[in-house]
Automatic annotation (TrEMBL):
<dbReference type="GO" id="GO:0016787">
    <property type="term" value="F:hydrolase activity"/>
</dbReference>
<dbReference type="InterPro" id="IPR029058">
    <property type="entry name" value="AB_hydrolase_fold"/>
</dbReference>
<dbReference type="Pfam" id="PF01738">
    <property type="entry name" value="DLH"/>
</dbReference>
<dbReference type="InterPro" id="IPR002925">
    <property type="entry name" value="Dienelactn_hydro"/>
</dbReference>
<feature type="domain" description="Dienelactone hydrolase">
    <location>
        <begin position="27"/>
        <end position="148"/>
    </location>
</feature>
<protein>
    <submittedName>
        <fullName>Dienelactone hydrolase family protein</fullName>
    </submittedName>
</protein>
<keyword id="KW-0378">Hydrolase</keyword>
<dbReference type="InterPro" id="IPR051049">
    <property type="entry name" value="Dienelactone_hydrolase-like"/>
</dbReference>
Length: 262
């Protein structure tokens, strides 16, 4: 397990749009960062990353899009969450070249956070199931630092879904226009991670060019950090601080990226 924390000291509030409302958690001071939790929800590992961002000088807001806030991760809990997400019209887990309605909510949340925090704009971090949500949220002009960690949606069943960028063609065109104005995107994954295929990053490299910075951690057999071939969660579960490993370095680069852009 990577670093963990709890919900102690976090402010709970509800943020809504005309279409949907979710409970959110906020803490910190400084430029804003929307941290979209990975499956199965706001776990102690997600909160460990959130606390690190707070300690690094950011105001962090975590929307609770699924799961029970603070609940520890387990196989049964994760599988139950995934089953519910698979049939969610908000998330569209299998849809190709699709707009996902939940990202409209995330854009509104990012805009609200930008309006009440210092800095030039806000960052958005998505992980695993929500990795691509961070990219789609960057259609919102207030988002200046999107970070997509191990994006797994659409689920990579078949070649067409493996190369799918996780956003609609209209969103991708808007993002390409934003990169011409200076937007940069940070992407992170493990080299052997089949749930977040390298082909998806290849698509984004072709679409976004030099505006897409990629960190790919070596998880091949015999890798120096001892990752298993199933290593997946770059910024949470696989981070080690003593001694620091390459996931730790990727987390530090993420913080640096947020500081540079915001």
């Amino acid at each position: 397990m990577g670093p963990t924390s709890t919900l102690e000291g976090w402010t709970r509030f509800e943020f809504g749009t005309p279409e949907r409302t979710y409970e959110c958690f906020e803490k910190g001071a400084g430029p804003g960062v929307v941290l979209i939790p990975e499956v199965p929800g706001i776990t102690p590992e997600v909160l460990g990353l959130a606390e690190h961002l707070v300690e690094s000088g950011f105001t962090v807001v975590i929307p609770s899009l699924f799961g029970t806030p603070g609940h520890a991760s387990s196989l049964a809990y994760s599988l139950g969450t995934i089953v519910r997400l698979c049939i969610s019209a908000e998330m569209r887990a299998f849809a190709r070249n699709a707009h996902r309605p939940v990202t409209d909510y995330l854009r509104a949340l990012a805009s609200d956070l930008a309006a009440r925090t210092p800095g030039r704009g806000v960052g958005v971090i998505g992980m695993c199931f929500t990795g691509g949500f961070a990219l789609a949220t960057a259609v919102e002009p207030a988002v200046l630092a999107p970070v997509m960690a191990e994006p797994a949606v659409p689920f990579p069943l078949g070649g067409a879904r493996q190369v799918d960028p996780g956003v609609s063609p209209e969103e991708l065109t808007a993002l390409q226009s934003r990169t011409e104005e200076g937007l940069c995107v940070l992407g992170l994954r493990f080299s052997e991670d089949a749930t977040s295929p390298g082909a998806r990053f290849d698509t984004l490299r072709r679409s976004l060019g030099d505006a897409f910075e990629v960190i790919e951690l070596d998880s091949a057999r015999g890798n120096p950090d001892g990752y298993s071939r199933g290593a997946h969660s770059v910024l949470t579960r696989e981070v080690r601080t003593d001694p620091p490993n390459s996931a730790f370095a990727a987390r530090e680069r993420t913080v640096q990226f947020l500081r540079e852009r915001l």
